[in-house]
Fold Crp/Fnr family transcriptional regulator.
Amino acid sequence: MNEQFRAHIEKLSTINDEQFDYILSFFKPKKLKKHSILISEGDTVSYEYWVAKGCLKASYVLQDGKERIIRFAMEDWWISDYDAYFKKNPATLHIECLEDCEVLVLSFDDREKLCKELPEMEYFFRKKIEGAYAAFQKRLISLLSSDAKERYDFFLQQYPMLHKRVSKSIIASYLGITRETLSRISNL
């Protein structure tokens, strides 16, 4: 896991062995079973998670009880309820493991300390946030301007391996369509 994590960081920032050992000292490894819950609505969120192995979903439950998948996280991705993590608001998302997972856990305070002490990590986290923001913008535009088939095609283009790892019901929830509609358009 350590080599994988270092390679992940070094995609954006160059660090030496001493810096990596220091960075790693702030992270706590955690193994989670399928269906484990990382965050529930209303929780205080003090951590973000880097995924070394597995797949997770972040979802929101509408007033009618229907679940809407907001995002996924797979290997080399980060996940948390970021409004709660950064702004100290109660969590609005529910984050659950879709597979057995191995993650590295970073507290907000440790993240701040790393960014203050190591410009390489401040740069790394800034670039990760910029990429996430751009991806969310694309997803929002797709939801607002595309029909179900176009959203499904965009999903397959963006996440070519994810559709093999999660159920069609979960993909349908992410796309904002019914399972039946997904079955129909995926066969076109």
